[in-house]
């Protein structure tokens, strides 16, 4: 029996919907995943059914599976960087055909009528429904992409252009839009401007690639000097700062139009604020657990901004995928079979991956 | 930090560093027995002159040579300007430079650069107690206006400075940057003022005038910006503020007061007014129908409410004290009032505000205030709490919200703000005081015991000692 947040019990995950599905789920806050049989709804009039080929592992999957955000409902099937092929469409669906390559990101539903939804900001809808660990409109749990199939309202499905590789494109559906959206919103997509990227992980490395594609000068700010060669030679960053090196940081003071901060670990942001020019903006896309300590003078002297951003709307996600396809932007991935999943999660806690694991669902996920 | 010994036993030169102002200033310190006394440059000159010693060199002064460990941590840098170059630009404008043997640039003596005697009240030490003080002002240059001061507002920053709370005070300090008076002299190149006009001076008296910020009318963000008091001016002299009988300022940094604008109630607008007006315009809080929150109902807060209403916005005051509700709603015209410590009141207002102006300088929690903002809402910080703010990241992320800092405003928008205030009858609520009440007034400012700004009636109550 699945225990819902409101205390009601309902039919088991295998029986609540008519179609059988399978995947890997976390059963408790150890976060260890194992094979899991459940069910999916039939293809509704507005729905698209997708056979999943690849799913990226996002750090949020780890946070949620281990109940680090205190909102986990078990059993949980994570995964919101889903790419696959359409196998069935509902009668109202005009924009997708069977056989097309498509993706699903972090959102599978929203109210579609509030002010935010109407302005294409479904990511800020107060009634947003996430791809996993959320209560869907019919009261059932949403299960994510560590599974063989998914059924999604067409509004939330992203078309993958022909030339975008499916495995390397999957992480863009979360990591990509999470950096692309605020860079566009805050005018940090203008050629010649100077962008700082804090943290070189799943989000950070994609931010470097987008920044270069926008024609910006990109400086990576990191705690480890080891990443310098990688950042400059492979990812194309123009410069690299070690945040603990006071001299380097001082020399770069007041040089950046914007900074995108992808770091989720607790860290000091005041030194980063001084890297900004007058009216510069620092955008938080990582969410450290402890509060940020910010001496207010670091914002007042220079009229600087500290902003937050959370994924992006569906229209922006499609735009981002099209832009990535056009500019050959993909994630750097390590493709793994589903059997490697728990080990990958452990490596992820140590940030031991360049830079995203992607599960080869199509070739390795079989019914238990 | 000692920079070397010079002179006789017990004398040494100490170099002080000033945030907000790239130039460093030397003051001399003499230790005699157990007591330590401080003199400014000016007073050192007086002592030397009156002692009859031959003046072969001025006290050593560095014009902003950047040392490796210069704590620029509070600096806002412009992309086109380094700290050093802005000071060289300023220094080269001075005709009174002399190079000393040790390579430092010496400023001219105060007598050479300042001709007119002036008097005011100054704080001599970190107790912040003010007392009569005689000094001098520069003679009126071709771009200058001289203003006989009639009124000067007491800003909370004055209190922070006289007590050295920002660790950058060089005594004696003559505070005051909400100055209003009448023009008594204009230089040959001045065209915006004539003798007899009413004019005001705010927080700035100079800037580099050539950087990206200055050319964009944002002199307040110029790295070489000179403050009205406690700063080193382009000629190497210390700036003294408006708790005095007169001020000489470049025309560019003076503000015209329209006829009919009350001088006493208008004075606080020169700091409090522009500090809230500038970000309210910049972030679109001036659009009719928007819902703006104002946190804190003091000197800045009450003016923000008045401007907000004049813009046609819906204004909600957020305060810790329920006692201010009636005042806020009935007298100042706020549309609503929230007690920040009342969770039910706050929750009912979640997600309702387009923007918030936060004027509070005391330590407080900002996370509950973020919840009041709509998606993409911005909270503008104009108050400066001493301790770092604690900001939880999630409330920023979930809603794409931001926290923005803002510091005073440029000269063009200060003039615009005064003209707008005159047109819409926006003035500060003041308590007019005599000069000799100033120390008592400072004590009351520390306790926020004023509705809402003290203004010193300089014209009628400041007399030479």
From TrEMBL, chain A:
PROSITE patterns: ADH_ZINC
UniProt cofactor(s): Zn(2+)
Single GO molecular function: cinnamyl-alcohol dehydrogenase activity
InterPro entries assigned to the protein according to its UniProt record, in alphabetical order: ADH-like_C, ADH-like_N, ADH_Zn_CS, CAD-like, ER, GroES-like_sf, NAD(P)-bd_dom_sf
Domain Enoyl reductase (ER) residue range list: 31-359
UniProt GO BP: lignin biosynthetic process
EC assignment: 1.1.1.195
Catalyzed reactions per annotation: (E)-coniferol + NADP(+) = (E)-coniferaldehyde + NADPH + H(+); (E)-cinnamyl alcohol + NADP(+) = (E)-cinnamaldehyde + NADPH + H(+); (E)-sinapyl alcohol + NADP(+) = (E)-sinapaldehyde + NADPH + H(+); (E)-4-coumaroyl alcohol + NADP(+) = (E)-4-coumaraldehyde + NADPH + H(+)
Pathway named in the protein's UniProt entry: Aromatic compound metabolism; phenylpropanoid biosynthesis
Domain of life: Eukaryota
This protein's record includes keyword RNA-binding: no
Keywords attached to this entry: Lignin biosynthesis, Metal-binding, Oxidoreductase, Zinc
A UniProt-annotated Pfam family: ADH_N
Family (UniProt): Belongs to the zinc-containing alcohol dehydrogenase family.
Quaternary structure and partners: Homodimer.
Protein's UniProt name: cinnamyl-alcohol dehydrogenase
Automatic annotation (TrEMBL), chain B:
A molecular function GO annotation: cinnamyl-alcohol dehydrogenase activity
PROSITE patterns, per database record: ADH_ZINC
Region ranges (Disordered): 43-64
Catalyzed chemical reaction(s): (E)-cinnamyl alcohol + NADP(+) = (E)-cinnamaldehyde + NADPH + H(+); (E)-coniferol + NADP(+) = (E)-coniferaldehyde + NADPH + H(+); (E)-sinapyl alcohol + NADP(+) = (E)-sinapaldehyde + NADPH + H(+); (E)-4-coumaroyl alcohol + NADP(+) = (E)-4-coumaraldehyde + NADPH + H(+)
The entry's keywords: Lignin biosynthesis, Metal-binding, Oxidoreductase, Zinc
GO terms under biological process: lignin biosynthetic process
InterPro entries per record: ADH-like_C (IPR013149), ADH-like_N (IPR013154), ADH_Zn_CS (IPR002328), CAD-like (IPR047109), ER (IPR020843), GroES-like_sf (IPR011032), NAD(P)-bd_dom_sf (IPR036291)
EC number: 1.1.1.195
Domain of life: Eukaryota
Cofactor(s) required for function per UniProt: Zn(2+)
Domain Enoyl reductase (ER): 128-456
Pfam families: ADH_N, ADH_zinc_N
Pathway the protein acts in: Aromatic compound metabolism; phenylpropanoid biosynthesis
Family, as annotated: Belongs to the zinc-containing alcohol dehydrogenase family.
Protein name: cinnamyl-alcohol dehydrogenase
Phylogenetic placement of the source organism: Eukaryota, Viridiplantae, Streptophyta, Embryophyta, Tracheophyta
């Amino acid at each position: 029996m699945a225990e819902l947040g409101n205390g009601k019990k309902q039919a088991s995950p295998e029986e609540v919907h008519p179609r059988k599905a399978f995947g890997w789920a976390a059963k408790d806050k150890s976060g260890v995943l194992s094979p899991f049989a459940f069910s999916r709804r039939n293809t509704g009039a507005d729905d698209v059914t997708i056979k999943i080929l690849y799913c990226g592992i996002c750090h949020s999957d780890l946070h949620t599976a281990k109940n680090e955000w205190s909102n986990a409902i078990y059993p949980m099937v994570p995964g919101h960087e889903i790419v696959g092929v359409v196998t069935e469409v509902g009668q109202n669906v005009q924009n997708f055909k069977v056989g097309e390559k498509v993706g699903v990101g972090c959102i599978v539903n929203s109210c579609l009528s509030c002010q935010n939804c109407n302005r294409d900001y479904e990511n800020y809808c107060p009634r947003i429904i996430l791809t996993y660990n959320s209560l869907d409109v019919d009261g059932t749990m949403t299960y994510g992409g560590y599974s063989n199939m998914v059924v999604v309202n067409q509004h939330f499905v992203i078309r993958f252009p022909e030339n975008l590789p499916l495995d390397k494109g999957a992480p863009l559906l979360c990591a990509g839009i999470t950096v692309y959206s605020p860079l566009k919103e805050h005018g940090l997509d203008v050629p010649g401007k100077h962008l700082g990227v804090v943290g070189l992980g799943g989000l950070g490395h994609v931010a470097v690639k987008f920044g270069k594609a926008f024609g910006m000068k990109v400086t990576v700010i990191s705690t480890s000097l080891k990443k310098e060669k990688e950042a400059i030679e492979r990812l194309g960053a123009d410069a690299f700062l070690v945040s603990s090196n006071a001299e380097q940081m001082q020399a770069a003071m007041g040089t950046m139009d914007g900074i995108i901060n992808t770091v989720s670990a607790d860290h000091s942001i005041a030194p980063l604020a001084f890297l900004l020019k007058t009216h510069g903006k620092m955008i938080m896309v990582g969410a450290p657990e402890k509060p940020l300590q910010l001496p207010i003078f670091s914002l007042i002297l220079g009229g600087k901004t500290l902003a937050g951003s959370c994924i992006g709307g569906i229209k922006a996600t499609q735009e981002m995928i099209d832009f990535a396809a056009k500019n050959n932007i993909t994630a750097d991935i390590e493709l793994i079979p589903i059997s490697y999943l728990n080990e990958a999660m452990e490596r992820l806690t140590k940030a031991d991956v360049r830079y995203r694991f992607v599960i080869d669902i199509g070739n390795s996920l079989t019914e238990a | 930090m000692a920079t070397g010994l010079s002179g006789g036993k017990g004398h040494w030169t100490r170099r002080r560093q000033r945030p907000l102002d790239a130039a460093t200033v030397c003051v001399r310190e003499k230790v005699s027995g157990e007591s330590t006394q401080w003199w400014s440059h000016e007073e050192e000159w007086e002592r030397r002159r009156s002692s009859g010693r031959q003046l072969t060199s001025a006290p050593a002064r560095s014009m902003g040579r950047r040392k490796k460990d210069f704590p620029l941590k509070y600096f806002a840098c412009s992309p086109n300007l380094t700290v050093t170059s802005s000071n060289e630009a300023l220094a080269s404008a001075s005709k009174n430079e002399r190079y000393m043997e040790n390579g430092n640039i010496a400023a001219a003596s105060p007598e050479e650069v300042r001709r007119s005697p002036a008097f005011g009240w100054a704080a001599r030490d970190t107790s912040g107690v003010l007392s009569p003080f005689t000094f001098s002002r520069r003679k009126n240059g071709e771009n200058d206006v001289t203003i006989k001061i009639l009124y000067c507002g007491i800003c909370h920053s004055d209190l922070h400075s006289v007590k050295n709370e920002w660790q950058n005070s060089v005594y004696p300090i003559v505070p005051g940057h909400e100055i209003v008076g009448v023009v008594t002299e204009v230089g040959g190149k001045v065209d915006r003022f004539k003798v007899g006009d009413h004019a005001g001076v705010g927080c700035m008296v100079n800037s580099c005038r050539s950087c990206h910020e200055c050319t964009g009318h944002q002199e307040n963000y110029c790295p070489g910006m000179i403050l009205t008091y406690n700063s080193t001016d382009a000629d190497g002299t210390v700036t003294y503020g408006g708790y005095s009988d007169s001020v000489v300022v470049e025309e560019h940094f003076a503000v015209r007061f329209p006829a009919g604008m009350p001088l006493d109630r208008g004075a606080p607008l020169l700091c409090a007014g522009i500090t809230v007006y500038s970000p309210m315009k910049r972030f679109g809080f001036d659009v009719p129908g928007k819902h703006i929150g104002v946190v804190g109902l003091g000197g800045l807060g009450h003016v923000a409410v008045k401007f907000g209403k004049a813009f046609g916005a819906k204004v909600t005051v957020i305060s810790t004290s329920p006692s201010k509700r009636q005042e806020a709603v009935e007298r100042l015209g706020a549309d609503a009032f929230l007690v920040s410590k009342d969770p039910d009141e706050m929750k009912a207002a979640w997600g309702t505000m387009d923007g918030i102006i936060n004027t509070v300088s005391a330590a407080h929690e900002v996370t509950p205030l973020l919840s009041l903002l709509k998606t993409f809402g911005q909270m503008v910080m104009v108050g400066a709490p001493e301790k770092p703010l604690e900001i939880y990241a999630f409330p920023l992320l979930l809603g794409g919200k931001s926290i923005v800092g803002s510091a005073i405003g440029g000269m063009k928008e200060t003039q615009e703000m005064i003209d707008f205030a005159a047109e819409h009858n926006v003035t500060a609520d003041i308590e007019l005081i005599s000069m000799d009440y100033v120390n008592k007034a400072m004590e009351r400012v520390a306790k926020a015991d004023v509705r809402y700004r003290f203004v010193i009636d300089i014209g009628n109550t400041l007399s030479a000692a």
